[in-house]
Each structure stands twice: as C-alpha cells, then as structure tokens.
Write a structure and sequence with these properties.
Layout lengths: L7 H11 L1 E7 L5 E7 L1 E2 L5 E6 L3 H8 L2 E6 L5 E11 L2 H14 L10 E15 L6 E6 L2
Antiparallel strand pairs: 1-2, 1-5, 3-4, 4-7, 5-6, 6-7, 7-8
Length: 142
C-alpha cells in the first residue's frame, strides 16, 4: 500500500499533493451536503479549508462539527477521513489561514468574507485500487 494510514505525515503529504477534497456535512434536518474544496494539511494530520462565511457548510459545521472528507479523486488511491471541524476565530484564524495560504498561494482565506475551518481527524480509510486485489486499511486516530 502506498499510503500508511498510521503515518499522519504521509496522509498530510497525500492531501497536499491532491489539493482538493470533497467535504460532507449535515444540515439541521440531518440531510447530507457535500462540496468540493481546496484543502491544506499540516504534518500532524490537521486539515484546513476555507469557505464563504455564509455558506451552507459553515452554517452546518457551526451547528454540528462532525465532518467527512474524501481526497484523491483520481489515480486509483483515495483517502477517506472523518473528524471534528472547528470554525476558527481570533489568532487561530490567522495562524491556520496563513498555513492554508502557504499551500494555496493567492487564496482568500484571510479575507473577512471567508471562514477558516480546521479538521481534527479521528478516523482514516485508505483505499488503493492500484493493487490487485485492492487494498483497504482503516485506522482510528487519537
């Protein structure tokens, strides 16, 4: 398997290489909502994305911080991640917004119309369809 689900730095490198991911949240009625976003990753496995402050996903995450993410939308290897999102404020917004900007130069993460969201990952699933048979590995992160 190309990506070890226990290796947070390897997961982060995979996410950074792809740069895009689908995030899934739930609305107030429990209905799923998904969106393609630019995503950054820190060495400890923390994920970061930005979104308009008044977007559905930000509204959803303020009410229910549970989130699912899929990265690696092509190439035969994908990573599914689940965790808890935080809509950053204050110094954290600046710190994580700058980290996002470092991986996505020219982003609008620090524009006041945008929220900066971090994800503390709690579960990872790596699916490698390039192997025969396909290899699947899941891990819980603490």
């Amino acid at each position: 398997m190309g990506v070890d689900p226990d290796d947070r730095a390897a997961i982060a490198a995979f996410v950074r290489t792809h740069g895009l991911a689908v995030v899934a949240t739930t609305d107030g009625s429990g209905r799923p909502q998904a969106a393609l976003v630019g995503v950054a990753a820190l060495e400890d496995g923390t994920l970061i994305f930005d979104s308009l402050v008044d977007s559905r996903k930000v509204e959803n995450l303020r009410a229910n911080p549970s989130i699912a993410v899929v990265a690696g939308l092509s190439g035969g290897v994908s990573i599914q991640l689940e965790g808890t999102a935080t809509v950053c404020s204050g110094d954290d917004r600046v710190t994580f917004g700058n980290a996002y900007n470092a991986q996505h130069p020219g982003s609008r993460a620090l524009d006041p119309r945008f929220a900066v969201i971090t994800i503390a990952v709690t579960w990872v699933r790596v699916y490698d369809a390039t192997a025969a048979p396909a290899v699947v590995a899941e891990r819980t992160w603490r």
